[in-house]
Each structure stands twice: as structure tokens, then as C-alpha cells.
Q: What sequence folds into this?
């Protein structure tokens, strides 16, 4: 079992920045690929970014490329999502997730553990 707890969400004006954190406990964190997903009201959960266990591979949704950066610190059992140039359409609940899958995936159904989410609201 892996327990995930997100933090760092909040209210920010368009063009601003936020840094989300996801602290993991339980099984060996470094053995999992990690992802960030988000869900806006009335919409399905969507992929945002993912990072391999070694940080050697990352993937991003087209909508956030060049604005968001995913990173991890295995010594601190934490994964981060740096969000810059935020837009109102980035408003959502952001979730971190862990997968035991060997390949780095953007498919939320293939992630095994999820945090409770943190709200990000971007005002125009």
C-alpha cells in the first residue's frame, strides 16, 4: 500500500504560479512511476503529467506543456508539480497517483494508488 497526500493548492490569479506537492508513505516510493491528474466540475478526470521512478522520463498533456513541470525527490518520498502561467481553464481538483506498471502511462485506469486531491482555482 502507498498513501498519498497532496498539498499546495489554492486560489491564484491568471498568470500566477503554484507548486503542488504529493507526499508518499508506505511501500518504497522510488519503485513507482508517479502521475498528476485533474478533474474540473462536470468533466472527466484528465492526465496532466507523469514521471518515471528514476526521473529519467516525463510526459505532459499538450495543454500544460511549457507551463508545468513535474519532478520528484525519492529521498523525501515526494513528487512535485510546478505550475506557471496559470489559466482559468487550469481550475480543477488535482490528484497525484502511483502506478506499479513498468511503462510510464497517461491512463488513469492503470494507476493503483490515489491521493485525496487538492483544489486549484485560477481567477481571471
A:
Amino acid at each position: 500500500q502507498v498513501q498519498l497526500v497532496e498539498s499546495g493548492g489554492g486560489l491564484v490569479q491568471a498568470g500566477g504560479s503554484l507548486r503542488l506537492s504529493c507526499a508518499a508513505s508506505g511501500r518504497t516510493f522510488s519503485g513507482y512511476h508517479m502521475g498528476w491528474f485533474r478533474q474540473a466540475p462536470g468533466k472527466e478526470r484528465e492526465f496532466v503529467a507523469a514521471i518515471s521512478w528514476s526521473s529519467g522520463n516525463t510526459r505532459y498533456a499538450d495543454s500544460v506543456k511549457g507551463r508545468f513541470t513535474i519532478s520528484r525527490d525519492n529521498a523525501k518520498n515526494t513528487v512535485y508539480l510546478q505550475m506557471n502561467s496559470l489559466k482559468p481553464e487550469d481550475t480543477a481538483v488535482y490528484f497525484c497517483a502511483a502506478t506499479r506498471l513498468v511503462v510510464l502511462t497517461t491512463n488513469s485506469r492503470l494507476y493503483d494508488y490515489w491521493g485525496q486531491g487538492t483544489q486549484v482555482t485560477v481567477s481571471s
Q: What stands out?
A: Residues 97 and 115 are 6 Å apart (CA to CA). The longest strand covers residues 18-26.
